[in-house]
UniProtKB/TrEMBL annotation:
Domain of life: Bacteria
Pfam hit, one: Pro_isomerase
Keyword terms, alphabetized: Isomerase, Rotamase, Signal
SUPFAM superfamilies cross-referenced by the UniProt entry: Cyclophilin-like
Gene Ontology molecular function: any one: peptidyl-prolyl cis-trans isomerase activity
Protein name: peptidylprolyl isomerase
Enzyme class: isomerase
Taxonomic source organism: Pontibacter mangrovi
Positions of transmembrane segments: none
Keyword Signal: yes
Amino acid sequence: MKKTLSSCFSRALLLAGCLLPLLSCQNSSDKADAEATDSVAAEEEPDTLEPLTTENVVEKLEAYGQSHPDSLAVISTRHGDIKVRLYKDTPLHRANFVRLTKYGFYNQGEFYRVIKGFAIQGGDSDGRTMKQGAYKIPQEFNPKHIHKRGALAMARYGDDRNPEKESSSHNFYIVTGEPVSKEQLLAYEQKHGIDYTPEQEQAYLTLGGEPGLDTEYTVFGEVVEGMDAVEKIEKEPVDGSDWPRQVVPHTIKTVTE
């Protein structure tokens, strides 16, 4: 697995300010080789995934989201299952995640970047043969959805090459941030022009999270079960580039309520 910080888009979560960066990429990151899971509809064989483009991404995801209202998914790893709820008021991101899941795109992905007390990042793999297309997802920032501990969000390029803050087509991350102080939270509110609700403030002060990422990356879901598995993944021994020394592959399937 080649470890590089080149300009490829596939493995980029570039964090702003003084926060640690989650940034990486792989030579064949837009490929996947996966078998259909039980969650894949009969007419949707993995090898028929239509690569999306900048021109058609919104139209295609809107249509897909209307016909596939799934809002729960399970990310399975050797450390256990992580159940996530996908927000319906971030429809493009929800539809994109469900689409790639149902076509089996994520089934040879892995958690490839881990920073303890910050986030685990997944969605990519060197072994892909399935192409999803060179597209980005328009940002869907929503003040209701913050980077609290357990938040599910999409990675993206940095502002210098992505001023619209559009999301990656497939790289996601789960926040594992620690509690912040009242002073830190006030500083983030002033910097980003945010007025946290009492409930959001309490979440950051007690549960933890990464408020520095709010209004920078689209949060489109949250962990509802399995944070113990997330915690095990974030404790994986890593190399100097925050890559787990032992691969942490994942498969994903949608589930019903």
